[in-house]
Request: fold
Amino acid sequence: MNTRTTSIIAGAVALSAGAVGSATALPAFTTAAKSRTVSPTTPQATLAQVTVGRHAAFDRIVFRFTGSTPGFRIQYVPQVIHDGSGLPVTLLGHRFLQIRFEPTVNGSSSNAPAVITPRFPTLRQIKRAGDFEGVITFGAGLSKRAGFRAFTLASPRRIVVDMAH
Reply:
């Protein structure tokens, strides 16, 4: 084996190890509140799309944004309350996550439905609970109190919320 071939193999092993390392860098599943703050000078993000998915060990919600990635706060609450009206948001499930983003607005051509009802093992339903003064709120109805994690991705800008089965 010549030196060049050895370098290519070593590079491939390093890339493979890097990919594994980044996959294990995801946050742990816990029931504690999760948050991300942004600078007051961060431009307002625009919510472009909300999608859900079911995986072997967790259910996933993906919020896609344009412009910037907003701050967030995700926490268990006894009941999700609609921003502005103060009325309770009715959700399928027995436990509830409140998911708040700011600064953000709902895009005029947004593909973000007001209600998604996947009836997955943990994620039963998600509903928009407010779009008021630069804050967008969602409620997630879960079948049980489960550990969850939240993290951001770039290109496109996304905030991901995974709920363990």
